[in-house]
Amino acid sequence: MRIGAIGIDSSHTPVFTKAINALHKEGKTKCQVTAFWDPGKHEWQHPAGAEQSKKDVAKWREDTIAEGAKQVDSLDALLSQVDGVMVLNINGHRHLELAIGPIAKGMPTYIDKPLTCSIDQAKALLSMTRQYKARAYSASSLRFVTEIPKLDKEKLGDIVAIDAFGNGEVLDMMPDLWHYGCHSIEMVDAIFKWSGQGPGVKRVSAIKKGDATSGYHLLDIEYRDGRLARIRCDRDGAWAFGATVHGKKGVQQFVVDFAPVYGRLVAGMVKFFEGGEAPVSLRDIVENVAVMQAGNESIARGGEWVEIPVIE
Fold it and tell me: What residues does 83 pair with on adjacent strands?
């Protein structure tokens, strides 16, 4: 099964290409990344500046080609020679624009995080997949941490609250929660799904301290059934993710081991492309987008609670 990638301004393009093609060579999947299209307007922002950003993009292109993917000249050329698509452009503001083509053709489509940087765009994507009967989803690697299924449901009981933490890296093109906030938000969402309690956010409140290189974001989430979650996205502490899970019977904690995370993310992708169920429904990812947008709106309003629309 031939998989095409859209975008070359993210390290995910060579990383996913290498991982999927390695599984193909090992006989573990029929998927193989065979082509990619560069839509231009590279927006990766290296902390060292524009020159290093250009070098990074050049290296990612070189590495992707070295893994066996051929660069094509247009989206039409890509779609004419693949069976599924990964939208990997780094800027979430462009994901709707870049996903329209494969979705309109009914192709299975994976869209990198964040799905979009707008709830209206996210809803438009969801509507399109239903209109064209196209399978699509998006996911953070934090959705696949091995520590979540190791939690003990019996000892926890129903979860009433989660205190989570993660890195708070920000980019100018995707300010505040858009770039890295989605990782911790999806990790919390994955914990609730594991518990069987699912989505259903009612409102959020968020504040920001510091700037792009220091400080933190603090996000409070209230669910319609009374559950609570608090997420701290930090830029000063060690790069790490984890959570304290508060149940009616007990409390359990974990810090994420990243060694198996990307492998599990890619395993979910190839199963999806091969026809399996998406690891997470697109509808639920749209709700996560709503949480990020409302959180950013709350930051602009000094921490006021912002209501979340019901996502059908």
Answer: none
pLDDT at 41: 87
Residues 84 and 152 in one domain: no
Lookup result for tokens 């500046």: 49
Identify the segments of the chain with pLDDT beneath 50: none
| Structural domain span for residue 41 | 2-141+261-279
- Which is it for strands 159-167 and 242-247: parallel, antiparallel or unpaired? antiparallel
Distance of CA 269 to the CA centre of its chain: 12
Q: What angle do CA 60, 62, 67 make, to 5 degrees?
A: 95
| R_g (Cα) of the chain, nearest Å | 19
pLDDT at residue 43 in the model: 85
Residue 245 in any domain: the answer is yes
Give the pLDDT confidence score for residue 266 in this predicted structure. 97
Is 189 contained in some domain?
yes
Q: What pLDDT is attached to residue 50? A: 87
Phi, psi of 221 (to 5 degrees): -125, 130
Question: CA dist 74 to 7, 21, 38, 81, Å?
Answer: 11, 23, 8, 11
